[in-house]
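Lab channel / #folding
Pinned by the channel admin:
"Please post every new chain as: sequence first, then the structure tokens as a reply. Keep commentary short and put observations after the output so the thread stays searchable."

First post following the new format, from NK:
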Amino acid sequence: MISQDFVYDDTAQAHYREDGYHIFDNCLTSQGVDTCRSNIERIVASLHADSIPEEIICVHQRGERWLWDLAVQPQILDMIERTIGPDILLWSIHILAKRPGAGIDVPWHQDAPYWNVSGNMPGAVWLAIDDVDEGNGSMSVLPGWHTKGTLPRRDSRANNAFNEEIEPGALPENIDDIKVTYRLKGGQMATHHTMIPHSSTTNRSERWRRVIVLRYIAADAQIGEKTYVCPITREPFDREAFLVRGRDLNDQGRRQTPF
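Reply from TO:
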């Protein structure tokens, strides 16, 4: 699934450490893109047209093996290992699917304070399955702002389905001048630091914006409890972190696969 041209070298790592994100020219092969796209289309087709969630969360725990196979690709795990070490948990996989002319505006936020996990996390792996740009709800980041620490937050549920955001006063006044908006072809990948402020917009185009986000953490992490609802079966299930490389630190009894 991964292109032979994909490489996480010293230059990429230096850019990630300095600016808090990095965009890769190549990641998925054309066959890998087709596999991901056809599986997402199958899942979406199984859902009621009026209730398709923008986030399809952790369905690798509900039988979607293709997502698992993607997340444990050696080239991706090699990249994660360079950031957090050899003992790695996979704790979530998100399919983000913004339909044409739909989707929410996700306000500026930081990942690490938002998720109920604690420990050494690498940047999120953000795989574009469609071409993404400003028109169909791409993501924007603030380069270098991953070094600012935890920014003050406020509740945003009154105006947005996303339940919290960074206080606007904590963001730069010239935010539109300094932000970087992802413009990726299907099959490209970006990674962003868990502390970098980022946001995305509504899909205002007639195109889909489908992205797969892979999240990992060091194996000695504490993973808080979280319950999701499978969009296919509508049954609740508990989030589980799996040991995808290295040792089960602190003997937490981590399974190595959901299959």
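NK: The chain has a mean pLDDT of 92.
TO: also worth noting, The domain at 10-251 is CATH 2.60.120.620 (Jelly Rolls).
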